[in-house]
Specification:
It contains 13 helices and 14 strands. With about 400 residues, it is an alpha/beta fold. The longest helix is centred in the C-terminal third of the chain and has 21 residues, at about 260-280. The two termini are about 30 Å apart. Bound molecules: pyridoxal-5'-phosphate (PLP). Pyridoxal-5'-phosphate binds near residues 164 and 166.
Length: about 400
């Protein structure tokens, strides 16, 4: 018998409550029943994103929201600055290039977070930059960028501030309105812990003004078309949406607010810390050297010498049922990543560390069996995490 556990930074585990909603008999998307759910989800997403502005739900994975940001916010040939801290920064670059933008790239070593001062310097030198794109949580490396610090710089510039918060929002704080974020992208299969297939995107008033002027060809991801349907009474989507996913998201968002924003952030923080400490105890090294740059959604670990990373992740999945992620892009084979995003409790972390220990032991890695698990337990205990709220 083998039970399966998903410990990746998307898709993430889904609660039984959300799965039950996902399995409800299908509603028609033009029915009053679905309109009610769609209105609720849109309102809850606004609260989730801490905005009173517009939030549009798209039926696509998170990349669809990134594409919508690029194709709606700009005109052909516009100059944009991509703050590139990893594989998803590369994705923004590719998208901007494909849709005819002039891309300026601020590249960092993978595993490092962006320095807001570098962004300020480039913006000061290039007043013609029309938009800045950045990841909040760069899932390929595990860093978190300081969006609040960058937002303070952006306030003095006319460029739109576009944030891919797909693996960040809901795990750590992101205040769309008070930080003045113009466009923020999210996805259903990350912190919200619903099935994959829906994305959401917030749009500020300043962004709408630039969107109205956009001349980049687009059809499915036309935000003005989507907004016209959202403004109908009752609100709708222009095309058939991922009905069951949206129904599931409605429940998942309820669960987020029932647990409480601060409690969710705290759970992510403690889980991330427990994974980091356990892995360091086992003699592994975090890819992200600076603890202040480590995000709470995923922990990236270097594959140590003498260990085959592919064999390790395969053993964890095939023998022990724990799916973790390998490296992406140029980190393929060099790191592995343990996700602790969304519906992940402390005992999921203990299971993942146990499986990791077995998989390391199989390859002859030297450590005392249980050392990582004990370290994780201690982290939970010392952080007062064993209280009734768990
Ligand atoms: C998951 C993720 C995406 C989008 O990936 P999809 O597979 O399209 O959902 C984009 N950016 C970041 C930072 C992500 O973690």
């Amino acid at each position: 018998m083998k039970k399966n556990y998903i410990m990746t930074p998307g898709p993430v585990p889904i609660s039984n409550e959300v799965l039950m909603e996902h399995g409800r008999p299908l509603m028609h998307h033009r029915s009053p029943e679905f309109s009610k759910v769609f209105t609720e989800v849109t309102d809850k997403l606004k609260k989730f994103m801490q905005t009173s502005g517009d939030v549009i739900v798209l039926t696509s994975s998170g990349t669809g929201a990134m594409e919508a940001a690029v194709t709606n916010a700009f005109c052909l040939g516009d100059k944009v600055l991509v703050v590139n801290t990893g594989n998803f920064g590369e994705r923004f670059k590719k998208l901007a290039n494909v849709f005819g933008l002039k891309v300026m790239s601020l590249d960092y070593e993978w595993g490092e977070a962006a320095n807001p001062e570098d962004i300020k310097k480039l913006l000061d030198e290039n007043p013609d930059i029309k938009g800045v794109m950045i990841q909040q949580s760069e899932t390929s490396t595990g860093i978190i960028n300081d969006i609040e610090a960058v937002s303070k710089i952006m306030k003095n510039h006319s460029a739109l501030f576009i944030v891919d918060a797909i693996s960040g929002i809901g795990a750590s704080d992101l205040k769309v309105d008070s930080w003045g974020l113009d466009i923020v992208c999210g996805g259903s299969q990350k912190a919200i812990s619903a099935p994959s297939g829906a994305a959401f995107i917030s749009v500020s008033q300043k962004a709408w003004k630039q969107i109205e002027k956009s001349n980049i060809p687009k059809f499915y991801f036309d935000l003005i078309a989507a907004k016209k349907y959202v403004d109908k009474n009752p609100p709708q989507t222009p095309w058939t949406p991922g009905i069951s996913i949206i129904v599931a998201m409605n429940k998942a968002l309820d669960m987020f607010f029932e647990e409480g924003r601060e409690a969710v952030y705290e759970r992510h923080k403690v889980n991330a810390l427990a994974v980091q400490k356990a892995c360091e105890k086992l003699g592994l090294e975090c890819l992200v050297k600076n603890p202040a740059s480590r995000g709470v959604s995923v922990t990236s670990l270097k594959v140590p010498e003498g260990i085959d990373g592919k064999v390790l992740t395969k053993a964890m999945r095939a023998k022990y049922g724990v799916t973790i992620a390998g490296g992406q892009g140029k980190l393929t084979g060099l790191i592995f990543r343990i996700g602790h995003l969304g519906y992940v409790g402390i005992f999921d972390v203990l299971i993942a560390i146990t499986a990791l220990e077995f998989a390391l032991k199989e390859q002859g890695w030297k450590f005392e069996l249980g050392a990582g698990v004990v370290e994780a337990q201690k982290t939970f205990w010392e952080n007062n995490y064993m209280s009734p709220k768990v």
